[in-house]
Amino acid sequence: MTLTAAIYLFGGLTALATLLMIFERDPVKAAMLMLAALLSTAGLYLAFSAQLLAALQIILYAGAIMTLFIVAITVTPAAWRDTRTARPAGAVRLKARTLGLAAAAVILAELLKVSAGVKTVTFSPEFSETGTLDLARLLFGRFAFQFELLSLVILAAIVAAVALAAKRKEAQ
Amino acid sequence: MSAYSLSALAFVLFSLAAAGFLTCGSLVRMLMFLELMLNAANIALVTLGPETVSQAYVVMLFAIAAAEAGVGLALIITLASVFKTLEAGNIRELKG
Predict the structure, then answer these.
(1) Residue A77 phi/psi, 5° resolution?
(2) pLDDT by residue, tens only, chain B of 96 residues
(3) Is the CB of B89 less than 8 angstroms away from the CB of A64?
(4) Phi, psi torsion values for A111, nearest 5 degrees
(5) A19-65: pLDDT as tens digits
(6) Are A86 and B87 a contacting pair, CB within 8 Å?
(7) Are B8 and A30 an interchain contact pair (Cβ–Cβ within 8 Å)?
(8) ipTM associated with this complex
(9) What is the dihedral of CA A89, A90, A92, A97, to 10 degrees?
(10) B84 dihedral zone (left: phi>0; alpha: psi -120 to 50; beta)
(11) What sign does the CA torsion over A32, A33, A38, A39 have?
């Protein structure tokens, strides 16, 4: 019962933070709302008894990725962030927003239609001991190759980011 | 509680993030909503998949998300310094 309430609470908080983020104009405030959404997701993982995922969510998403976003917002000059002058006319913007919202509604309707098959499956959340050992056995056993491939992905991402930054320096 | 309501929660989060992605014009904001879409996909994976295997996938997706955010922000900062704008609508040339 408590876990079900926690799932709805954290799920609602995440949805609320995402909704407020859409209407927030200040990018720093939007980043803070995103942080709230990510932390609520960590709470959601805890309610699902996925303790390792909750810890990784806080360290990776709420820590590392959010820091990247804040740095990106900080290093771009304020004049470029001020979007009000560059925006299209009101009618065009309204049309674009309506189309965007309609597209999102269609995505939601289709996803709900597709997942109608799980309506009969019941889910009773129960608090369980952390399955970190099983997870480690999977990551370093069955999924060892995929897990090692990920290090290549991250290496490629680091090289790409450094190459892009170096190119910018040369251009200046 | 049915698995359907849990998947509906993940799908609502995904759609909200998709709505934000489709309606905002700023590149940094679009990347933020992209991360939230990936976050919602992670939640769907945890709620609908088999317990340990889906959690292993989510751990791997965390690494993908970190790599994606790093490259995406490097691209955005480079684009912003070339075009002097962060609005996607103002970037009309392919040549950088």
Answers:
(1) -60, 150
(2) 778 888 899 999 999 999 999 988 888 899 999 999 999 999 999 988 788 889 999 999 999 999 999 999 998 888 888 888 888 777 777 764
(3) no
(4) -60, -40
(5) 999 888 888 899 999 999 999 999 999 998 888 999 999 999 989 99
(6) yes
(7) no
(8) 0.90
(9) 140
(10) left
(11) positive
Reference B37, options A18, A67, A163; nearest CA is A18
- Candidates A41, A100, A112; nearest CB to B19: A100
Output the DSSP codes for A3-19: HHHHHHHHHHHHHHHHH
Two structure tokens written together for A113: 């239609």
B91 to chain A: which residues are within 8 Å by CB?
none
Residue A110 tokens, joined: 């289709």
DSSP state of B2: B
**Alpha-helical segments (H) within B24-50:** 27-48
